Amino acid sequence: MFLFSLLKCIFKPLKNSLHWIISGPIYKHLQDQIVMAGKKKNSSSEVVRKMWTHPWRYRESFLVAFLLMFAGVLIEMFTASPGISVPGFPANMFAGMTFIATLAFLHIFYGKSNFVKWLSGVPAAISSITLFSFAALILGLLPQNGESGSLLSAAGFTHVKNSWVIVMAQIYLLTSLGLVSLRRSTPLNTKNAGFLLNHAGLWIVIAGASLGTGDLQRLKMDLHAGETIWYAYDNQKRNYELPFAVRLDSFHIDQYPPKAGIFDGRTGRIAEGISGGLPHIYEGDMFTLLDYRITVEEFLPSAWPAGDGFTKSDETGSPPAARVTVTSQNGRESHTGWLSCGSFLVNPSYIILDNGMVLAMTEPRPERYRSDVRIYTKEKEPRDEVIEVNAPPRVEGWRLYQYSYDTSRGRWSELSVLEIVRDPWLPVVYTGIMMLLAGALYILWLGRGIKKEELDDNNMNRPLSGRGFED
Amino acid sequence: MEWTNFPFFGILSSILWISGVIIIWLPGGGRIRKTFFHLLIITGIAVFGFFLVALWINLGRAPMRTLGETRLWYAFFLSFIGYIAYVRWRYKWFLSYSILMSLVFSLINLIYPENFSKTLVPALQSPWFVPHVIVYIFGYALLGAATIVALKGLYLDYFHTFRKSIMNLSDNLVYLGFAFLTLGLLFGAIWAKEAWGHYWTWDPKETWAFVTWLAYLLYIHYRHFHPAKVRTPLWMLGCAFIILLVAWFGVNYLPAASDSIHVYS
Ligand code: HEM
Prior knowledge:
- By secondary structure, chain A is of the alpha+beta class.
- In chain A, 36% of the residues lie in helices and 24% in strands.
- By secondary structure, chain B is mainly alpha-helical.
- Chain B folds into two domains: 1-106; 120-265, Up-down Bundle (Four Helix Bundle (Hemerythrin (Met), subunit A)), CATH 1.20.120.
- Helices cover 74% and strands 0% of the residues of chain B.
- Chain B has helices at 6-25, 31-59, 67-89, 92-111, 129-158, 164-196, 204-225, 231-248.
- The interface between A and B is large, with 69 and 70 residues.
- The structure holds protoporphyrin IX containing FE.
């Protein structure tokens, strides 16, 4: 209650000036100027409705959406830099608070006005969701390479993510969604709580994610084995000092066993007629490929060439190798020899078959990437961490992701590239996500809330009338 | 159990399902015939389910990595949903069309057998992988079922024999399907944060999944506001399903997808 009167105090002066915009001369002018032609529909009972007379419906709502998009394109065209970048803390937080305050203001003082009623109603919701979908569709259809020079890029369509069009779409959507959330926040019964989980939850996710981009940092760190690094770089290769340091102790790749395949010696492509994927190579295994029976006599996961074959070895750059026997089904052809996919130090070895085909070993697929690191912070003792895909450790508000390595050396890479991410708005977004999850469960639980009898055809077989877009 | 066994199980299920559907359409109805019908459909679903589980065990990973593997789940869920809807509401036509869709998806897998592979790239080795895909494909199956209802509705509407129960069925399917879509989207976001550093990157697959979600959101709100309207929401469902299909299969072929991380291998 106290909060309420406080808000009233702050908003009173604002209210008077805003009143002018909402029900003032401009608005009246619009109302007089644009006259709708009236419905061409058959029904004579329908009244001819002037456009912009309340209640606003789809025609007005979609026109507003279109004008907003148009405004977005214009701003995009007449501003120097392509798109906008969200400001960082604290400006983004103030922007968010101002927006919330404005919505609260509108809700408290103009909740009963036609304008706010329209903004928090379904036609405005539908037109704003449509505008947002439209922006997302462009994003999903056109390559987002941010190239400039074309008309599309001038309108912001090659960088929709941070274009003015999507800003406009978001403001419209968040206004509508925010106002309906406020309207339905009282009384707080079960139905409205379910409603709020979905609507307020989505509001928090979209607002939090958008404003959060201003503080989101995604940097890369190149770690060479044994070196201690305390800085990271961004896409433009600018360096940033970090509140912690990382030393790479070792980098590992665990691999799946390699596979055997028959390839066309001329094209290097997999031989025609092999279906169902290639078999893994395990010692003692037997399998058929095309017309050949292949037996794996011996398999060395890590081997070095010696004489005609390979011996076990733990040297850097030792590839896997297998001694196999190949026999054609008709028994006419038989070879025994070594297969190896090779490495950056060792040439591959394969068996040439009679018809220009080649039996070879494929590069093993990675199963796990792992960086063993030691992390130093100013206050705490150094600690050892393992960084793997899907398991990023947290350090001083940053999360450390396994990102890349020296692919030319593969398993023996001495380099591990980390992506490090700081996203202080994550708790906000996750709050919204949790609400949405609960909201989805609420929908699953209640469904549409239709009782059983209603679903029965016998109770409900009256044909319906009234079809079309407008009421 | 491997992909090479699919023809046997796929065809066996198909035969069981087709026989079941033929039986419910035959005139007259005795107790024995009804039991027989349930037995055929359930066995068909069980055979298909058995193949999925056995494939899972044999591969040592969830069979959800490739498009073909997701089609298997789709066929499975759709027949399942069709059967449940029949048990609950006695819609013969709905069961028949769901089964037909299952057959089409199985057929695609028969014509284009998958390359089976036991390997799973590290990014997919996450506790979120299975719930994310299962929930999504289940949502897709429900929304596919809603599309069947919409087509039926448009057909009836054309011949002026529309019944309100059609709208109720499609609403229920969309609400359930939409809730599953929401779960799938959010699980995906949480997983992406763990695996790729950010929960949302406007990757083409993400973008299309989001547009699909918005399209069904439009339907839900339009229906809520205009409970008596029929034709517009039914067309909305049709369009939404096309967007869904793009999100599922089409993204791989879009110009915007050249650098997607989500394109199925
Ligand atoms: C998570 C996403 C959403 C879900 C699950 C959802 C679900 C629903 C449902 C089930 C209803 C009708 C039931 C009721 O009144 O309790 C509804 C109403 C409504 N929704 Fe949403 N919605 C979502 C997003 C949105 C968005 C993005 C907007 C606006 C931009 C919006 C605006 C509205 C409006 C204006 C109503 C009418 C409420 C009233 O008049 O009281 N919704 N929504």
